[in-house]
Amino acid sequence: MDLITSGVAAAGIKAAGGPLGALIGRYRPSGVPRLGSREDRAGAYRRILDASTRSFAYSYQFANLRREAGRASYKLLTAQMPAMWEISSDLISALNGVRLCGSVQVIDAAEKLVTAAGSLDLNERKADHFQLQAEAVVAAQKTFLDTCREELSYNARWYQILRKRKEKRFLRQLTAS
Predict the structure, then answer these.
(1) Residue 15 domain-assigned?
(2) Structural domain tally of the chain?
(3) 5 lies in a domain?
């Protein structure tokens, strides 16, 4: 003889389903970001910043070595081409990560950053022309970073008066020093 009838069991499951369902619905495993979450977006933005910095540094070295050493550097530079391709593919992959979870403004800034990094002329013979191209990449990185900070709400909002005052005071102290 069963002490629990099917009606009692159904009522018990139904009663426990509300709180249990709420607990399961709130469950977010730590360290596993949701797609499009703030942590996921910050990770994608950090990845493209790292990839663009690596690409820029490698291109800068490559161009300077080619300009300074001339024909003597051809064998070394030819051996470095697979690494350069890998770095470029990392940059494109990071851009696709930003396209997956970023906002429209961030995607636009990321595409401009990748365009600036890709437009570095590694065969430029004049150092000052190459320096102008390098400064364009640095400016694109700064624009991308500022856009990301704004999108992730790292910058003070209009209603955060105390935070804005602290930032202004800090910036005044920096310029006064």
Answers:
(1) no
(2) 1
(3) no
CATH number of 76's domain = 1.20.120
Packing angle between helix 81-101 and helix 104-118, nearest 10 degrees? 170
CB atoms within 10 A of CB 92: 14
Q: What is the mean pLDDT of the chain?
A: 82
Distance CA 14, CA 20 (A): 10
How many angstroms from the chain centroid is the CA of residue 74?
Answer: 34
Q: Where are the alpha helices (DSSP H) in 28-80?
A: 38-69, 74-79
Give the tens place of pLDDT for each residue, 128-152.
Answer: 899 999 999 999 999 999 999 988 8
**DSSP at 103:** -
Closest CA to 101 of 141, 53, 43: 43
Q: Is the pTM of this model over 0.90?
A: no
Token pair for residue 87? 């770095």
